[in-house]
């Protein structure tokens, strides 16, 4: 949440002041009269680096030489508390430069620096940090903070990378605002042999330009006044947090594309109160949530290093814009173009067409939602609920109140996140999907964690829609019930209540299926990264809980993974596990030899088709499974026939561009590995069907991809051996097993071979059900819904 992140930055600055002899709070002195940091490069010797070493370039902007005896260059990481120092010797002439070489990198093909004037050993970060020039008295003469630096003069300068340096736009000018004074670009290190510069005629930029909030925000994602000093910015304080306040103009312009609100970053708790009319002099900056690790995020426009004058108090606040009534977001269209970055100059900005522009056009303003409907359950840990307006929502909705993510061109672009960071915990009621915040919910529109969010200041009460967990039908005699269920990092250390509730879901809501493929079973020590890989304790504890809940005595089969080779929570060693009940005629064909690295193969033909090892893993050393769960395959017998079940947990969607991120259209980089994984599994299915065209094959599990995805298409295949992806057989508004940020979507699948679905088209007794027991509920036992299919005996061989 932005409030917590900004508060954390503040606490880091305070801790730094206590831990070091030199305070790195924004400089209180006038601009440095002589020595300044002119250029810093921290990517030296990294991959793609033009130079082999990190460096700091100093400049003397005065008309007199400076003796460097006793001076130091000091470096801190972006949020570090311990300085690394390089002592200086010699002198810098008037208008001269001084090159300080620091640590070398491993890239020996990068060119060396020009001859340095001083040499240190500091390894600096490529993306951000803090560099200070400190005189013999221990006083910071000049400070540069860049990237995600928690201390700087004014606002930090922009982030760098392996191929870019941060440098002063005009070496002679120091305004004590890093964001205004510095830019990033190709490194150009210069030493004391460089011809001196005469700074006697240099004049600093004007004190600032009078501006309105609308002029500062502009009709764009990046302020047209970024980096500029602005004065006499007027508005009334509409909300505040521990690091600043939001202000909104009371004299708006006539352009709905330009926001009338902006955040003023004071670093410490602001003196201005809600309802105060203020006039602000400040620097316009763009804050990117997450810093260098949040490069997919949009920025928010801020006023930094402000001087705030309160002109009156107790003023009425501007009326909120009621989203869904006063203004209606474009539906199912985040960005219609393909700009790369929406922040690029010249990208069309049209709030009437693109939802990402619609939300941006109200950044920092008071907004309201009337009868907001929850389309995702409240995240109890973070106090967040995904909602849509109570009016004018035309996207495909589920019968239970959610909004469907039905294709890449149909995102739920009207959703917003209600965030409780500005109000006491519990002020915003807990909601399940379909519940309504009855009345008007008011707050400030902000952005963080790849989503626009309403920082709630006035909460409406929650009216329950009475959502109940679904219960599926029990399998009839002659039906084989198969299920898949991601139980979300189940570990022995989880409370007994989790096991009891999961067991109740299996016994009551799923009606105790014959075969269940479980995903995310952790090892016996849970997330402790101690080398343990066996999961007997975990599965035994769940099976015991099922029996205690009145269910059958399940048996379990799995293959232990290699330690820390399958991704997921470090040390947890998650894997898929089969549990099955024998009281209804199901048996498991045990063939020993299955190990973490042993590839299971198909043996025999016709009704003699079998597996080389069972349970086993499919091609586990294939690069498609790098740092990802390997598929588990097992051979079952039921009513005298073999059923081959392949349990999967494909790699996650982590790393994909967010729907409301700066990169449009979003790139789904994680698909590449899932597509490769799907091809490996499909090839194994083909080998089974080649050996026995009538083989009963079920491909199940958490595929981490949608029913309309290429991943699913690869698994389905084509022609006479095509599998049926059961989520595709449901009505469009019931296709969801997971809810992510207000988008109901399919991630979990059951696919079946032709012999298993033979009765489907002929109307034989057959049922497939996504059993909605988790994804819609705030008190969920897992973040995934399980699903079950009941297959008639005549559909098997």
Automatic annotation (TrEMBL):
Organism: Metallococcus carri
Ranges where the record places region Disordered: 185-205
Signal peptide: 1-30
Entries under PROSITE patterns matching the protein: LTD
TM region positions: none
Keyword Signal included in the entry's annotation: yes
Superkingdom, natural source: Bacteria
Coiled coil regions in record: none
Organism classification: Bacteria, Bacillati, Actinomycetota, Actinomycetes, Micrococcales
Xref: PANTHER family: ENDONUCLEASE/EXONUCLEASE/PHOSPHATASE FAMILY PROTEIN (AFU_ORTHOLOGUE AFUA_3G09210) (PTHR42834), ENDONUCLEASE_EXONUCLEASE_PHOSPHATASE FAMILY PROTEIN (AFU_ORTHOLOGUE AFUA_3G09210) (PTHR42834:SF1)
GO molecular function: catalytic activity
Keywords: Signal
Low complexity bias: start-end ranges: 185-194
Pfam family, one: Exo_endo_phos_3
This protein's name: Nuclease
Domain LTD: 25-148
InterPro entries: Endo/exonu/phosph_ase_sf, Endo/exonuclease/phosphatase, Lamin_tail_dom, Lamin_tail_dom_sf
């Amino acid at each position: 949440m932005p409030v917590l992140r900004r508060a954390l930055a503040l606490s880091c600055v305070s801790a730094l002041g206590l831990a070091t002899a030199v305070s790195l709070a924004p400089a209180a002195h006038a601009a440095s009269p002589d020595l300044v940091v002119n250029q810093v490069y921290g990517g030296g010797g990294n991959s793609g680096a033009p130079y082999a070493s990190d460096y700091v370039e100093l400049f003397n902007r005065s008309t007199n030489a400076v003796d460097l005896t006793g001076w130091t260059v000091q470096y801190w990481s972006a949020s570090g508390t311990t300085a690394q120092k390089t002592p200086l010797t010699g002198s810098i002439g008037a208008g001269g430069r001084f090159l300080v070489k620091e640590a070398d990198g491993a890239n020996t093909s990068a060119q060396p620096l020009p001859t340095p004037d001083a040499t240190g050993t500091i390894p600096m970060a490529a993306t951000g940090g803090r560099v200070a020039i400190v005189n013999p008295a221990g006083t910071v003469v000049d400070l540069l903070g860049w990237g995600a630096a928690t201390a700087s003069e004014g606002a930090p300068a922009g982030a760098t990378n392996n191929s870019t340096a941060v440098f002063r736009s005009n070496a002679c000018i120091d305004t004590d605002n890093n964001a205004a004074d510095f830019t990033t670009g190709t490194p150009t290190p210069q030493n004391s042999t460089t011809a001196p510069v005469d700074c006697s005629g240099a004049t600093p930029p004007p004190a600032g330009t009078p501006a309105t909030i609308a002029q500062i925000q502009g009709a764009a994602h990046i302020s047209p006044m970024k980096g500029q000093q602005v004065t006499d910015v007027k508005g009334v304080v509409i909300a505040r947090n521990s690091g600043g306040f939001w202000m909104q103009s009371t004299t708006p312009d006539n352009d709905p594309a330009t926001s009338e609100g902006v955040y003023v970053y004071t670093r410490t708790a602001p003196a201005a109160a809600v309802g105060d009319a203020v006039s602000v002099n400040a620097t316009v900056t763009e804050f990117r949530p997450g810093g260098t690790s949040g490069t997919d995020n949009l920025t928010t426009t801020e006023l930094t290093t402000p001087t705030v004058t309160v002109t009156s108090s107790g003023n009425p606040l501007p009326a909120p814009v009621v989203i869904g009534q006063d203004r209606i977001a474009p539906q199912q269209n985040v960005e219609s173009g393909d700009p790369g970055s929406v922040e690029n100059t010249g990208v069309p900005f049209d709030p009437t067409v693109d939802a990402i522009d619609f939300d941006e056009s109200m950044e920092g303003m008071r907004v309201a939602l009337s009868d907001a409907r929850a389309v995702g359950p409240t995240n109890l840990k973070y106090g967040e609920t995904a909602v849509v307006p109570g009016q004018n929502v035309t996207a495909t909705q589920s019968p239970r109140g959610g909004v469907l993510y039905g294709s890449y061109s149909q995102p739920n672009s009207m959703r917003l996140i209600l965030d409780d960071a500005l109000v006491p915990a519990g002020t915003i009621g807990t909601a399940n999907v379909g519940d309504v915040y009855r009345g008007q919910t008011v707050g400030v529109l902000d952005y963080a964690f790849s989503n626009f969010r309403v920082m709630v200041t006035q909460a409406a009460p929650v009216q329950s829609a009475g959502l109940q967990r679904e219960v599926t039908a029990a399998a009839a005699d002659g039906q084989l019930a198969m299920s898949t269920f991601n139980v979300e990092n189940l570990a022995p250390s989880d409370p007994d209540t989790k096991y009891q509730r999961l067991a109740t879901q299996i016994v009551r809501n799923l009606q105790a299926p014959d075969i269940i493929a479980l995903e995310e079973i952790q090892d016996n020590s849970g997330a402790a990264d101690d080398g343990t890989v066996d999961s007997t304790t975990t599965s035994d504890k769940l099976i015991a809980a099922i029996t205690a809940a009145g269910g059958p005595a399940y048996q379990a089969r799995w293959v232990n993974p290699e330690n820390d080779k399958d991704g997921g929570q470090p040390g947890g060693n998650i894997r898929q596990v089969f549990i099955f009940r024998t009281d209804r005629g199901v048996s498991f064909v045990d063939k020993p030899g299955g190990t973490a690295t042993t590839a299971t193969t198909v043996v025999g033909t016709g009704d003699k088709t079998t597996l080389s090892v069972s349970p086993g893993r499919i091609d586990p050393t294939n690069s498609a499974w790098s740092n990802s769960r390997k598929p588990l395959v097992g051979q079952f017998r039921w009513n005298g026939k073999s059923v081959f079940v392949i349990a999967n947990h494909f790699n996650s969607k982590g790393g994909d561009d967010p729907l409301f991120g700066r990169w449009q259209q979003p790139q789904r980089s994680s698909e590449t590995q899932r597509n490769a994984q799907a091809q490996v599994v499909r090839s194994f299915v083909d080998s089974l069907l080649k050996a026995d065209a009538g083989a009963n094959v079920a491909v199940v599990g958490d595929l981490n991809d949608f029913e309309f995805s290429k991943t699913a298409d690869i698994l389905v295949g084509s022609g006479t051996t095509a599998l049926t992806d059961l989520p595709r057989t449901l009505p469009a508004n019931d296709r969801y097993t997971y809810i992510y940020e207000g988008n109901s979507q399919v991630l979990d699948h059951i696919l079946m071979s032709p012999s298993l679905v033979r009765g489907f088209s002929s109307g034989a007794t057959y049922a497939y059900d996504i059993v909605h027991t988790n994804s819609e509920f705030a008190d969920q036992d897992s973040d995934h819904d399980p699903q079950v299919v009941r297959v008639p005996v005549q559909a098997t061989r």
